[in-house]
Amino acid sequence: xxxxxxxxxxxxxxxxxxxxxxxxxxxxxxxxxxRQYGALVAHYQPQVxxxxxxxxxxxALVRWQHPARGMVFPNSFIxxxxxxxxxxxxxxxxxxxxxRDMRAWLDxxxxxxxxxxxxxRRSLLHPQVIADLRQLLARYGIDGGMLEFExxxxxxxxxxxxxxxxxxxxxxxxxxxxxxxxxxxxxxxxAISSFPFDRLKVDRQFVHGVEGSExxxxxxxxxxxxxxxxxxxxLCEGLEDEADLLWLARRGASCVQGWYFSAARTPEAIVxxxxxxxxxxxxxPLTTAQLR
Length: 292
Ligand code: C2E
Ligand code: MG
Ligand code: MG
Ligand code: MG
Description:
Elements: H1 4-31, E1 39-49, E2 54-66, E3 70-72, H2 78-83, H3 87-107, E4 115-118, H4 121-124, H5 129-140, E5 147-152, H6 153-157, H7 160-172, E6 176-182, H8 189-192, E7 199-202, H9 214-229, E8 233-237, H10 242-250, E9 255-257, H11 267-279, H12 288-291
Protein name: EAL domain-containing protein
Domain EAL: 20-278
């Protein structure tokens, strides 16, 4: 059937299907800990208060160390995990690694900071999540207050009525809730005011390369007002250069994360960073230059 054009299209479609089903298969293998499919590993990106010069937290960001493809970034497999019902297993695997890493850091006497994890809506709403979280906290001896769960604005608001009670259960364990990629979802203020949250993470599009844009400056001011209204902390993502830093500093926005300070680092690199912080524990706080 069809001419050469259609045959090519069919062939490409076939190849794409093969890639997708193969990726689903391999991802399941990695989730089940089968070594030939590589490993899913959380790296950590530092979050800093650049006006005070201190490390305030870490965000766990999952990577797939694939034997043939090398390091695979989450944007190419999280959507696949979400659409094939594997996301809960993935999010819990990351949560367990975070608890295990924190336990090791505590045992080494390192100055541990809170860790933020990304949770898909499905994981947040999963019927087992609170029981599983409790169990992990108990097994590793981790305080719920050392964890923050990030859900994107669009995923939270799609089901705001279901999210409210669940968010309360997380917070009852001491965990914090962050609204991720804020400013890119619906910004339905009525829905967002229907549940409590602790932090607004301002999306990179309001942070990087915005100097000189009056429009973005106005929106940023609004977002600061929203955070204040809801008594939530503001954290700006995607800070890449000095110009971004100065722009934020002028607006009194002090909590940031981005490549300017550090990309996500391996757990081993984080141990070195925390070790260096312990050495300085009695010294004055770090300067911005020292944190870079
Ligand atoms: P996100 O939570 O908004 O994470 C921020 C993303 O921006 C990360 O990409 C991070 O590496 C990147 N980034 C950090 N600083 C900068 C910067 O200065 N400039 C730019 N251009 N980018 C920066 P990554 O690691 O590829 O993660 C992408 C998304 O994947 C995350 O977005 C998050 O939504 C999702 N994700 C990551 N890990 C998990 C997980 O364990 N579970 C779930 N459900 N989602 C995850
Ligand atoms: Mg995030
Ligand atoms: Mg984000
Ligand atoms: Mg994002």
